[in-house]
From TrEMBL:
Domain of life: Eukaryota
Keywords: Chloroplast, Membrane, Plastid, Repeat, S-adenosyl-L-methionine, Transit peptide, Transmembrane, Transmembrane helix, Transport
Transmembrane segments: 16-41, 62-81, 101-120
Organism: Triticum turgidum subsp. durum
Residue windows of the Solcar repeats: 17-90, 99-181, 194-251
PROSITE patterns with a match to the protein in the record: SOLCAR
Family the entry assigns: Belongs to the mitochondrial carrier (TC 2.A.29) family.
Database matches in SUPFAM superfamilies: Mitochondrial carrier
Coiled coil: none
GO terms under cellular component: chloroplast membrane
Protein name per Swiss-Prot or TrEMBL: Mitochondrial carrier protein
Signal sequence extent: none
GO biological process entries: transmembrane transport
Localisation per UniProt entry: Membrane; Plastid, Chloroplast membrane
Length: 251
């Protein structure tokens, strides 16, 4: 049969490395920008969630720990998007169009799982600095390892996965599905501000849904050597008993 030249309609082969590199660059840059812009809000949220009933909230030092946090956010965000994008595209090729949401959910969870190896130590150091336990990131890392061992940097890892895997999966599923619907309505490609608004909306909805899990994660990560909570269930029971259900809605 005649090989009639490289037709314009031919699909480009799936280039994993190219998609990975593009995702790493885009994810790292976006992560740093978003983290810097929203860091004061995140600090307030962390302090609210860590505070027990009747505790005073400290409003100073809202950028405490930002520099050290960005050192972890850059590779973590890059790794997440670097895993998410090629995984999403591969799954979309495998699944029928009516199951695209499953592809987005799965890719988000897989990306979150991979990035958690960097995210968790970064989050532990960040939240302990936000709550005033340490002044600098190097001091935080050194003292956590000295007092709690290397495992201390992964405090609350289970609660982190319990919160962040659903968060990543749900957020990116909502984001991608809204983009698909919007593009069908607009009958054109979306502009960057539109993508940003959809992303912000998806993040806000997902954040509200996962707030109780976020409270558990924060409490377990910042408790340090006090070991007030022995695990996720213990933490949930103690908060419910001592502070009531409203404590799970701090965000």
């Amino acid at each position: 049969m005649g090989g009639g030249g490289g037709g314009e309609g031919e699909e480009k082969p799936f280039n994993f490395l190219q998609i990975l590199c593009e995702g790493v660059i885009a994810g790292g840059a976006a992560g740093v920008v978003v983290e810097t812009a929203l860091y004061p809000i995140d600090t307030i949220k962390t302090r609210l969630q860590a505070a027990r009933a009747g505790s005073q909230i400290q409003w100073k030092g809202l950028y405490s720990g930002l520099g050290g946090n960005l050192v972890g956010v850059l590779p973590a965000s890059a790794l997440f998007v670097g895993i998410y994008e090629p995984t999403k595209r591969k799954l979309l090729d495998m699944f029928p169009e009516n199951l695209s949401a499953v592809a987005h959910l799965t890719a988000g969870a897989v990306g979150g799982l991979g990035a958690s190896l960097i995210r968790v130590p970064t989050e532990v150091v960040k939240q302990r600095m936000q709550t005033g336990q340490f002044r600098t990131a190097p001091d935080a890392v050194r003292l956590i390892v000295a007092k709690e061992g290397f495992r201390g940097l992964f405090a609350g890892y289970g609660s982190f996965l319990l919160r962040d895997l659903p968060f990543d999966a749900i957020q990116f599923c909502i984001y991608e599905q809204l983009r698909i619907g919007y593009k069908l309505m607009a009958k054109r490609e979306l502009k960057d501000p539109e993508n940003a608004l959809i992303g912000a909306f998806a993040g806000a909805i997902t954040g509200a849904i996962t707030t109780p899990l976020d409270v558990l994660k924060t409490r377990l990560m910042v408790q340090g050597q006090t070991k007030q909570y022995s695990g996720i269930v213990s933490c949930a029971k103690t908060i419910l008993r001592e502070e009531g259900p409203g404590a799970f809605l701090k965000f």
